[in-house]
Design goal:
alpha/beta, six-stranded mixed β-sheet, Gyrase A, domain 2, 14 helices, 3 domains, binds guanosine-5'-diphosphate, flat, Four Helix Bundle (Hemerythrin (Met), subunit A), seven-stranded mixed β-sheet, Rossmann fold
Length: 461
């Protein structure tokens, strides 16, 4: 685990040119370090109160011995009323990476440490300003692929995951207290509650937790744009499909088998606003000429890292291409596969094959369905109601495990004559349930899990 008592620094604005760049410091030395490179137009920086800003000049000595003087503005947030609950200083500079990079290097030379990805948010979590579900939502808001996912992430950022699961955690804790007390009171022949009543309450909580998981919107762990690859033998119509689906003229279509050499790609807009990269792995099925090995390698790579494989065959060609299918599976065993039959406008008869979509790049038939299916396979469907919470698989697993343990305790109690008869076992299950809920709030979480979660962040957040 990183230290939290030193001062970290990072460029918090996006790379590239912009109106402003932002370098952020957090930690006990934030004000002192900023004061070393910044001359305010009036007063002393160290005396500036929280939520205050001041114009001035950023002065950095560079290797040549000269000093760079850059006009800037500094914002001060005093502990504990800041994002990290530590002293935070933001230096705003004219946009462009040279000025912000020079400032970053000067601050590191003066004793600040380059922040790791997500380390500002990690400090906010470790210092108790936000819980883990909110910390995760910070990255989700940044990476939201569409409006639905943004809304779902904003709910979580506002603490809704904790509010909903927290109510169940409180109810389970109360039941646990009763169950544990009944162990002590067993000797005295006192009954605090009827086992059936607690069982019923716990069944209710278990259902609620399961419901939250089931109604949630899937949030991807990966932060990159999902990729979908079109794979199939030469001339089955992959390039034409790429053009027709994306509306771009990226691929060269030709009646000559094997015309497309490179892996072409174009952005594909799915219903609901999500954008994925659609790739044409043309060389994958082409093995019959000299260029094949190189294009095969690039195409194999595209197949291997695809999130969904569209296996394209000609609707008129009934022969099942088992060999190519096996090679695709070999290259990427885990990605879901969508079977497309192309050129269906030419096909003499359309067999009703379940799980197969008939498409035509010429007439547009089936293309909207392809986009809908891709949205489903990538969990980018937008059919969830506006109040769906965005959850990651890990959080969903925690909810399900908490619900299972809660139900196990309920079942034990439902069959008991007296709470004390099953109290020890029921208490174990209830503690287990609370432990899993603690994995969502961050009360019970290992360093590995934290490492995985914060790996999704960018530096400076
Ligand atoms: P690729 O090698 O798999 O990329 O195949 P192309 O997209 O280059 O298409 C091969 C040939 O089939 C070209 O002559 C296309 O015009 C034709 N073709 C592709 N899609 C369709 C379609 O949906 N209907 C018809 N009628 N022809 C198509």
């Amino acid at each position: 685990m990183q230290k939290t008592d030193d001062t970290i620094v990072a460029i918090s604005s996006a790379a590239g040119k912009g109106a402003r760049a932002l370098v952020r410091l957090s930690g006990p030395g934030a004000l002192r370090l900023a004061a070393g490179v910044f001359a305010p137009s009036a007063g002393r920086l160290e005396e500036l109160g929280g939520f205050r800003s001041v114009d001035g000049i950023v002065r950095i000595s560079v290797d040549s011995g000269e000093a760079l003087e850059i006009p800037g503005r500094v914002y001060v947030f005093r502990a504990p009323r800041s994002y990290t609950r530590q002293d935070v200083v933001e230096v705003h500079l004219p946009g462009g990476s040279v000025a912000s990079r020079s400032l970053l290097e000067a601050l590191i030379a003066a004793g600040a440490r380059q922040a790791d990805p997500g380390e500002f948010t990690l400090r906010a979590f470790l210092n108790g300003r936000i819980d883990l579900s909110q910390a995760e939502a910070v990255a989700d808001v940044i990476h939201a692929a569409d409006e639905t996912r943004l809304r779902a992430s904003l709910w979580a950022l506002n603490g809704e995951v904790q509010r909903r699961t927290g109510r169940s955690a409180a109810a389970i804790t109360e039941s646990l207290a009763t169950v544990e007390a009944s162990i002590d009171l067993a000797e005295e022949d006192l009954q605090l509650a009827k086992p059936g009543e607690i069982a019923e309450a716990l069944q209710g909580e278990s259902k609620k937790l399961r419901g939250i998981a089931e109604r949630s919107l899937h949030l991807p762990d990966a932060t990159e744009t999902p990729t979908v690859v079109l794979a199939g033998r030469p001339n089955v119509g992959k390039s034409s499909l790429l053009n027709a689906l994306t509306g771009c003229d990226r691929a060269i279509t030709s009646a000559l088998a094997g015309t497309t050499r490179d892996v072409l790609s174009a952005p594909l807009h799915l219903p609901g606003g999500a954008v994925v990269d659609l790739l044409d792995a043309a060389g994958f099925g082409a093995t019959d000429d000299l260029l094949a090995p190189e294009s095969d390698a690039a195409a194999g790579n595209a197949v291997a890292r695809a999130d969904v494989i569209c296996f394209v065959t000609d609707a008129d060609d009934a022969t099942a291409d088992a060999e190519l299918l096996a090679r695709l599976r070999d290259a990427n065993p885990s990605a879901p596969m969508l079977s497309l039959r192309s050129k269906c406008d030419l096909a003499a008869s359309k067999r009703k094959d379940s799980g197969v979509l008939f498409t035509s790049a010429t007439t547009g038939e089936g293309l909207e369905e392809v986009k809908l299916r891709l949205g489903e396979l990538l969990h980018l469907e937008t059919s969830r109601s506006g109040d769906a919470l965005g959850l990651h698989d890990r959080q969903r697993r925690c909810l399900q495990a908490a619900a299972d343990a809660c139900r196990a305790a309920a079942n034990l109690l439902a069959d008991a004559r007296d709470i004390a008869d099953v109290a020890e076992l029921a208490a174990v299950e209830l503690r287990e349930s609370l432990r899993h809920l603690g994995g969502i709030s961050g009360q019970v979480v290992t360093e590995d899990i934290l490492g995985n979660i914060f790996a999704r962040f960018c530096v400076g957040k």
